[in-house]
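User: Let's play a game. I give you a shape written as tokens, and you guess the letters that built it. Ready? Here's round one.
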């Protein structure tokens, strides 16, 4: 092979099962792995500075060329735990909502659910770093990823966006999946998916490699119950429905 593929991956805990086998795979000789938060990886794929990324599905319509290249994703079939609206008061009392700056898909999902499921109007606020400290009184916030797992012990009211979507549509939800902005050889992707599968089949090894200070939630439950990694037919239907709402 005469090139190294530039591949972006989300740096959250939810990607650890996918990345464990990948980082141990001989494929690392054929690729450069870049880790960042979802919105940043998405922008890199849009800019063409990476060839493929585990990116928010909401950016799919923005890509000039989008190839869904893998059988794996970051999805959920119910409560996702790490994507939610957090508040000190019930949702019906919320007047303002911060939208997590690290997110592309989850903030759009929150807006769809507010309109269609909760039928609630709020003032949407653009969040910056440190915005979680501003979630108080009637001001709520969408928080995603590892910070959301930590926030579960800090706020009285948690509205899980995965659960709400499933209740609203009857379909699973896909937050991110491997998307390329150019064709990727099938031989590479076959080996890539095999590497993705390794960590899913060895969750004890995944969890053992995570420092205890980062384990603010039951990771066994998170990886086996909350997050669902296989891009099934029903998840594809859920993803298509979400994209049609954008």
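Assistant: Ready! My guess for every position:
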């Amino acid at each position: 092979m005469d090139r190294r593929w530039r591949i972006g991956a989300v740096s959250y805990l939810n990607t650890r099962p996918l990345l464990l086998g990948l980082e141990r795979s001989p494929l690392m000789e054929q690729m450069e792995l870049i880790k960042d938060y979802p919105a940043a990886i998405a922008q890199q794929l849009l800019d063409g500075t990476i060839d493929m990324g585990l990116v928010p599905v909401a950016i799919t319509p923005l890509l000039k060329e989008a190839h869904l290249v893998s059988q794996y994703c970051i999805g959920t079939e119910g409560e996702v735990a790490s994507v939610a609206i957090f508040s000190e008061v019930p949702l019906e009392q919320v007047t303002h909502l911060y939208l997590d700056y690290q997110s592309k898909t989850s903030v759009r999902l929150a807006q769809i659910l507010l309109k269609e499921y909760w039928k609630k109007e709020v003032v949407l606020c653009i969040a910056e770093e440190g915005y979680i400290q501003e979630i108080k009184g009637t001001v709520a916030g969408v928080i995603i990823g590892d910070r959301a797992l930590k926030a579960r012990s800090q706020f009285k009211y948690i509205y899980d966006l995965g659960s709400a979507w499933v209740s609203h549509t009857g379909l699973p939800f896909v937050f991110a999946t491997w998307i390329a902005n150019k064709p990727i050889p099938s031989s590479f992707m076959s080996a890539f998916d095999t590497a993705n599968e390794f960590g899913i089949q060895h969750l004890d090894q995944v969890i053992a490699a995570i420092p205890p200070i980062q384990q603010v939630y039951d990771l066994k439950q998170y990886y086996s119950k909350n997050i669902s990694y296989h891009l099934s037919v029903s998840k594809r239907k859920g993803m298509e429905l979400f994209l049609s709402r954008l």
